[in-house]
């Protein structure tokens, strides 16, 4: 996908909403300004009331002076962030990001074969989310009768820890950074998954005309953008605790800052499809999240959860028991458990979905080779992507985790990772990450679309 051709989009908003307005908001996120807007036909949904109330400078939740102040601070934080990320090779991660985008283009993105908001969050609950200032907004009469909140500058800026930038929003700690190096890594993984799933973005049989789609923990938003392109008449919403999404997106695509582990303030029975990918080191209570997903899907709507899981597997005994990689895998299992986000949670997705009442639960476990050791073309390619991902992404995956759970310093983490990286590159070790894809349907008939 070449996003240079995409029209400008509405900026990110917070479901507990942002103070920022339009271009200022882009700048707040420290991203480079997009190209100048070009004249174009308005999209049918562009002038919706909710867009206006959310983004116009007259919105009651908008405070431009705060935005400008945030912007200045953000610029200086960005400089600090850049300077402090010496441990990550920017050149390499940039190269990998570019490689991912080029490969995505080469893979051609073929078309997929056919195949009253419950304002249930009390202000107490919302107040418990650091980084959110809740405001009542009685003027907000969109059908998204959600709470309106300003996101504090600290939440937008994030926080630097061990030389990495982390999200500053959300009630619980997310284990991985959300800085430039991490975003490049997510881009690369987005392409890797496209190759892994035979050029599909998801497997659930959602039909050709879903109307409302939600991506939980959308990261850079590339899945949201691609799916918005696939279904131009659908509204596709991505939510995340980090404002890491791109500025230039299709008009039917929108991003919000939101913590999915807080009570959702969205309309129940309203989504045709809810998707979540790689919510690693993210979710403390999956059954509770699955309950929220269930309640917010329309009857007949689909959920799909995709995630890598651990421990690292090897089917032919080629990985020595005393290898650093084996030790790393065992440490990952115990540390993620201690952190409250066990790495083998994806193995339980299907049971949790069934327990909540979902039907037609399907589960496929793919293999992501750690390097290009397999013979098959597809897995060789996926393994090459994974080698790049692990080369640059391993530190981000564990630096906070090992520091929180084992008290390791960044130096100790990086010293340990030297041998792990060597093992990961060894093509005689036939190792892979299990990658679980589970999709399921909420029972009931799909309502006939109105209009
Ligand atoms: C490994 S990234 C995956 C991003 C994206 N789904 C993808 O596949 O490219 C996990 C994402 O979940 C987000 N996240 C973690 N905890 C969250 C929460 N409680 N609410 C919303 N997003 C969350 C993180 O900020 C991060 O962007």
From TrEMBL:
Domain of life: Eukaryota
Bias kind Basic and acidic residues: ranges: 40-51, 65-83, 123-135
Listed name of the protein: Methyltransferase
Region (Disordered): 1-90, 113-150
Similarity comment: Belongs to the methyltransferase superfamily. LaeA methyltransferase family.
Regions of compositional bias (Polar residues) in chain numbering: 53-63
Biased composition (Acidic residues): 136-145
Gene3D superfamilies per record: Vaccinia Virus protein VP39
Lineage: Eukaryota, Fungi, Dikarya, Ascomycota, Pezizomycotina
């Amino acid at each position: 996908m070449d996003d240079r051709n995409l029209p400008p989009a509405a900026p990110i908003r917070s479901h507990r909403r942002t103070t920022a307005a339009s271009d200022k908001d882009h700048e707040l996120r420290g991203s480079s300004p997009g190209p100048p807007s070009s004249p174009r036909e308005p999209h049918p949904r562009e002038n919706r009331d909710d867009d206006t109330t959310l983004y116009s400078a007259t919105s009651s939740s908008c405070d431009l002076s705060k935005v400008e102040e945030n912007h200045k601070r953000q610029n200086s934080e960005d400089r600090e962030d850049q300077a402090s990320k010496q441990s990550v090779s920017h050149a390499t991660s940039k190269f990998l990001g570019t490689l991912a985008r080029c490969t995505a283009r080469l893979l051609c993105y073929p078309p997929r074969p056919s195949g009253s908001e419950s304002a249930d969050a009390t202000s107490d609950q919302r107040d418990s989310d650091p980084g959110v200032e809740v405001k009542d907004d009685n003027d907000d009469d969109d059908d998204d009768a959600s709470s309106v909140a300003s996101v504090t500058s600290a939440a937008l800026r994030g926080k630097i820890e061990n030389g990495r930038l982390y999200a500053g929003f959300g009630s619980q700690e997310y284990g991985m950074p959300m800085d430039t190096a991490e975003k490049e890594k997510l881009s690369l993984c987005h392409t890797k998954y496209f190759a892994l799933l035979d050029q599909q973005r998801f497997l659930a049989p959602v039909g050709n005309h879903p109307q409302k789609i939600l991506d939980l923990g959308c990261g850079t938003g590339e899945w949201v953008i691609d799916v918005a392109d696939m279904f131009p008449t659908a509204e596709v919403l991505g939510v995340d605790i980090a404002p890491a999404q791109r500025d230039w997106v299709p008009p039917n695509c929108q991003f919000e800052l939101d913590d999915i582990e807080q009570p959702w303030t969205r309309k129940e029975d309203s989504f045709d499809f809810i998707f979540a990918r790689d919510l690693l080191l993210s979710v403390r209570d999956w059954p509770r999240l699955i309950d929220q997903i269930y309640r917010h899907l329309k009857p007949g709507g689909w959920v799909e959860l995709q995630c890598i899981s651990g421990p690292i597997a090897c089917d032919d005994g080629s990985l020595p028991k005393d290898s650093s990689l084996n030790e790393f895998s065992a440490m990952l299992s115990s540390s993620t458990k201690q952190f409250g986000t066990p790495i083998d949670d994806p193995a339980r997705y299907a049971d949790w979905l069934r327990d909540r009442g979902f039907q037609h639960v399907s589960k496929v476990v793919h293999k992501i080779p750690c390097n290009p050791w397999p013979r098959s073309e597809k897995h060789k390619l996926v393994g090459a992507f994974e080698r790049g991902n692990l080369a640059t992404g391993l530190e981000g995956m564990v630096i906070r985790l090992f520091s929180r759970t084992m008290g390791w310093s960044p130096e100790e983490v990086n010293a340990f990772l030297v041998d792990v990286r060597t093992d990961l590159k060894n093509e005689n070790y036939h190792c892979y990450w299990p990658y679980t894809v589970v999709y399921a349907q909420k029972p009931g008939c799909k309502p006939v679309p109105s209009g």
